Amino acid sequence: MRRLLILGLDKNDVPIQKALKYMALFLLGETELRDRKEKKHDWELLTRLFVSTWVRIIDSNNSIANLEAQKWAKVISAGFEGDIFKF
Q1: Neighbours of 51 (CB within 10 A)
Q2: pTM of this prediction?
Q3: What pLDDT does 46 receive?
């Protein structure tokens, strides 16, 4: 995605549209990423964060990625209630 953006493409160009579709399918649980799964991390959690972030960088109005961001906003906000970090 970074390379496509550096080349000047945006969400209206076919390569990025294809990538956005693939990432949306992943976020919906309809496909898996082709990357090798890591064993030392919560791979599903980590990849959902990465993928939703890239989708939002390209299309900040993407409802699927925005739902993922809202989940994390709640988690982070809960951690800082009362001006102290709870976790």
Answers
A1: 20
A2: 0.78
A3: 86
* CA 79 to centroid of chain Cα atoms: 21
Q: Which helix (H) or strand (E) holds 79?
A: helix 63-79
Q: Which amino acid, 54?
A: W
d(CA 71, CA 64): 11
Is the per-residue pLDDT at 16 higher than 90? yes
| Closest of 35, 48, 41 to residue 56, by C-alpha | 48
Residue 65: which residues within 8 A CB-CB, separation 6 or more? 23, 24, 27, 51, 52, 53, 55, 56, 59
Closest Cα partner for 50 from 61, 39, 35, 63?
Answer: 35
